[in-house]
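User: You have something folded?
Assistant:
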Amino acid sequence: MDAQLIAALVAAAVAAGFVDSIAGGGGLITVPVLMLAGLPPDQALATNKVQGSFGAATAAFSYARSGLVDLRKQLPTAAIAFAAGVAGAALVTALPTQALRIVLPVVLIGIALFFAFKPGLNDVDRAARLAPGAFALTAVTAVGFYDGLIGPGAGAFYMLSFVTLAGYGILKATAHTKLLNFASNIGGLAAFALTGNPLWALGLMMGAGQMAGAWLGARLAMRIGARVIKPLLVVTSSALALRLLWQML
């Protein structure tokens, strides 16, 4: 790849890191540009896992520094997300992923409508519907497995789980989502690295862009909270649903 193309990919990673640190969906930007750069789908997805891990880690660290999440307490839950991500990626050829892709746009549109029209969604915590252990073994396992198996929209699914089941406010849910997103992403990468042949050098360069974008996005989210997170989550979920529908046509 020439320098101009690499620079364009790094710029796309900055934008993706910014969006992903607030509402998820950064892969909407990076996967298409990687494929436009000439990478086959499997290699684009694997390389995307490399660079996306840096953005998720940066966002998780930024939110932790602000006191919104205790990384040490969340490590057992992150370990479950990692294991689930490995399992999902390992079974990608054995399960009917195409059937899931057909249902996925409908689910994502439902998530967008929920965050757009559900009254009272703000940064205030509410009563949890599941105890932390039950939440980790059900919602986190399911979303982590999905992240390794398919991936798009995993951040939105984590967000929805934290808000509806754990009772978290929008900003706190976003902060806790990032470490789990990082963990299941790394789990998926561990399996993809064996079969997807990621471009490690390119992934690392784009990872630097992801870190810059994620740092900026996390700072904005912490400053404004639900007022920026909710609309961006609605936009990214809707855009991902439309992209998946377009791919099926």
